[in-house]
Amino acid sequence: MEHVTFNNGVTMPVLGYGTFQTPPKITEKNVTQAIELGYRSIDTAQVYGTEPGVGAAIANSSLSRDKFFITTKTQTDGYAATAKGLDESLQHLGSDYVDLAIIHWPTANSLDTYRALEDAYRDGKVRAIGLSNFNGAQIDQVLANAHTTPVIDQIETHLFWQQAKMHPYLLQHDIVHESWAPLGENFGREMMALPAVTELGQKYHVSAAQILLRWLTQQGIVTIPKSTNTDHVAANFASTNFKLTATEIDSLRQFDRHHSIKDWPQSMREANY
Q: What kind of fold does domain 3-272 have according to CATH?
């Protein structure tokens, strides 16, 4: 598995397993399956309700905790609530640290929330801290007030919204770009049916979904596709087993629509920052 390196030296697999909208009752089973297929990076969040299942799957695996990279996201606003929430996340995960803790979305008290993440980082409860759904102007505010530079920004990114504005911004500030909804959710079938995508799949003997994932990861964009279908989970993991050419990567830029599949949060609209 390829890795990205954060601005604090910590490394993260470029492809992981997402647990968004996974029913908590089957999370442990699904994450266990992902681990058996080779995944070591697992993405969860306080709001998902999947932290206990992720923790149980890791605890019951044959691998030690340090073989995994766990990401969780805060569902809190302000210093005290965030500090308390992180401690609860550690209890749910059955671990004394998480590898990455990020603010799930901007709030009125994002700076105080981020300060709680900074203190958790200082205390060894997290190995790296970052953001999610923050636009460039919002990140500028964090950078102007923080002591610790965020390592990552997790934002909607896929073929139909390539984040042509945010991607260079993140590169400039040495912040890793991470994609949520890498397969476009409801627009996935339309993306996968594009002749330019299917022809590449035929060339490399892979699926259209694998082309879309590889198109992201080869640009250094971390992806966390989620599926409960065993074949799809395995195929997603295998998407790093081939390489597109630079010309092929550039050829897919023509499909950028420059807007969200959900239009959420509106602050991420490219005209709003």
A: TIM Barrel (3.20.20)
The pTM (predicted TM-score) of the whole model is 0.97
pLDDT tens for residues 160-198?
999 999 999 999 999 999 999 999 998 999 999 999 999
What are 52's two structure tokens?
């206990």
pLDDT in tens, 60-108: 999 999 999 999 999 999 999 999 999 999 999 999 999 999 999 999 9
**Distant-in-sequence, close-in-space partners of 117: CB < 8 Å, separation ≥ 6:** 74, 82, 86, 101, 102, 103, 126, 129, 148
**Exposure string for 168-180, b = 16+ CB within 10 A, e = fewer:** ebbeeeebbbbbb
Please confirm, yes or no, whether 97 is among the known catalytic residues.
Answer: no
For residue 172, the number of C-alpha atoms closer than 13 Å in the C-beta half-sphere is 9
Q: Please tell me the distance from the alpha carbon of residue 217 to that of residue 196, in angstroms, as a whole number.
A: 18
Catalytic residue among 39, 48, 114, 169: 48
Cα–Cα distance for residue pair 224/15, rounded to 1 Å: 6
Q: Cα(first)–Cα(last) distance of the chain, in Å?
A: 35
CB 135 within 8 A of CB 273: yes
> How far is 152 from 131, CA to CA, in rounded Å?
6
